[in-house]
Amino acid sequence: MIEKMLEKIKEADSIIIIGHVSPDGDCLGCQFGLKEIIKDTFNKEKVYAVGEDSVTLAYMGKLDTVTDKQFRESLVIFVDLANNERAADKRWTLAKEVIKIDHHFTSEVFGSLCYIDYKVAAAAEIIARIAMEHNLVVSKYAANSLLTGIITDSGNFRYTGVSANTFRITAFLVEKGADVVELNQKIAMVSYNELKIKGYVIENMKTTEEGFAYCLITKQTMEDYHVLYEEASNAVNSLANIYGYPIWALILEKENEYRIRLRSNGPRIDLLANKYGGGGHQLASGCRIHKVSEIYQFSVDADEVIREYKNREV
Ligand SMILES: [Mn+2]
Question: N or C of the chain: less Cβ packing under 10 Å?
Answer without folding.
Answer: C
